[in-house]
């Protein structure tokens, strides 16, 4: 029986998508710079590097993360695992089309309207982000469904074993929950920036919270890996969906409540919106709260869904 790799083809396709999207992004950025280029060219370019890198992470990296998870499931459903010239050729064409579609989705669907408060802004941003994600996911689905007809399918189906079943479910859970947590966190931070006036010093401190949030997610996922002990005979789509939505939902709601009440209190007291947030005591508390919450929620959820022997 031929040995099949579950993630090799999705990794290659996701890398192709990222590179094409990156080239497309820099192409349109270069065209924009040519129209906006000021007298001080060097200073202008260096001032834009940070914004460009943030946009690459917020858009291209997160899109690629979501794409990798969906591709893994869709290619598995279509029984396509073989890495050959035919499959790579069709996937490259599909990823090129998807890159253009994703770019126009980004510039067409806006979710940064000014509202009446942080709660309104977060709900508004969440709504438009979900619309954008829906169009992006549907584009992936129909492109892969169309090009799968021309790709080489494997004669034998992929067999889940005790070892690879645990690894596959853990990787898929980590990918999807990381995407939703990072997307939700970005929406909360963007809502704060739209409601409160943030200076350069506050942004530097805010970046510290961003990096620490990412480290908290990685720590929580690393510790939750020990809960993936149950081997399944087929991919547990329902378990993955429920566990990812519950874990990311609880963590983001708690994080939003924490930010919302602190900033609302500060606004009521007519003080600088970030003076208490950046206070050493509160900053230490927030930095400790994030990894504790991440580890607690992810451990409880994964233990409930992936240590049970009963398949859903």
Descriptive account of the structure:
- The protein has 312 residues and is mainly α.
- Helix content is 76%, strand content 0%.
- It contains 8 helices and no strands.
- The protein has helices at residues 8-36, 41-77, 85-108, 118-147, 162-195, 200-224, 237-268, 280-306.
- Helix 5 packs parallel to helix 7 and helix 7 runs antiparallel to helix 8 (280-306).
- It starts with 7 loop residues before the first helix and ends in a 6-residue tail after the last helix.
Spatial shape? globular
- Helix-residue proportion: over 70%
β-strand amount: under 5%
Number of strands: 0
Radius of gyration: 21 Å
Q: Please, what is the average pLDDT?
A: 78
Distance between the termini: 28 Å
Individual helix count? 8
- Give the SSE string: HHHHHHHH
Low-pLDDT residue spans:
111-116, 267-273
Reconstruct the topology from this structure.
Elements: H1 8-36, H2 41-77, H3 85-108, H4 118-147, H5 162-195, H6 200-224, H7 237-268, H8 280-306
Compact description:
The protein is 76% helix and 0% strand. The chain is built from eight helices and no strands.
List keywords for this structure.
globular, 312 residues, mainly alpha
């Amino acid at each position: 029986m031929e040995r099949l790799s579950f993630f090799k083809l999705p990794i290659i396709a996701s890398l192709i998508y990222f590179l094409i999207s990156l080239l497309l992004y820099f192409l349109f950025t270069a065209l924009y710079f040519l129209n906006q280029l000021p007298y001080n060219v060097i200073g202008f370019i260096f001032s834009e590097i940070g914004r460009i890198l943030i946009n690459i992470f917020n858009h291209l990296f997160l899109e690629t993360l979501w794409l990798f998870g969906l591709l893994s499931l869709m290619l598995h459903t279509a029984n396509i695992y073989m890495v050959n010239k035919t499959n790579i050729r069709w996937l490259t064409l599909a990823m090129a089309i998807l890159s253009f579609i994703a770019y126009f989705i980004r510039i067409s669907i806006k979710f940064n309207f000014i509202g009446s408060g942080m709660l309104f802004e977060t709900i508004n941003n969440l709504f438009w982000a979900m619309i954008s994600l829906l169009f992006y996911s549907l584009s992936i689905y129909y492109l892969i469904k169309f090009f799968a007809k021309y790709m080489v399918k494997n004669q034998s189906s992929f067999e889940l074993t005790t070892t690879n079943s645990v690894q596959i479910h853990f990787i898929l859970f980590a990918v999807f929950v990381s995407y939703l947590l990072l997307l939700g966190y970005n929406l909360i931070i963007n809502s704060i920036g739209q409601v409160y006036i943030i200076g350069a010093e506050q942004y530097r401190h805010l970046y510290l919270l961003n990096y620490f949030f990412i480290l908290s997610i990685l720590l929580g996922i690393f510790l939750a890996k020990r809960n993936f002990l149950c081997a399944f005979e087929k991919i547990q789509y329902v378990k993955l969906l429920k566990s990812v939505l519950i874990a990311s939902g609880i963590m983001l709601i708690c994080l939003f409540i924490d930010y919302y009440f602190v900033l609302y209190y500060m606004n009521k007291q007519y003080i600088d919106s970030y003076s208490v947030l950046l206070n050493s005591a509160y900053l230490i508390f927030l930095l400790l709260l994030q990894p504790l919450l991440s580890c607690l929620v992810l451990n409880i959820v994964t233990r409930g869904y992936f240590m049970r022997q009963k398949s859903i």
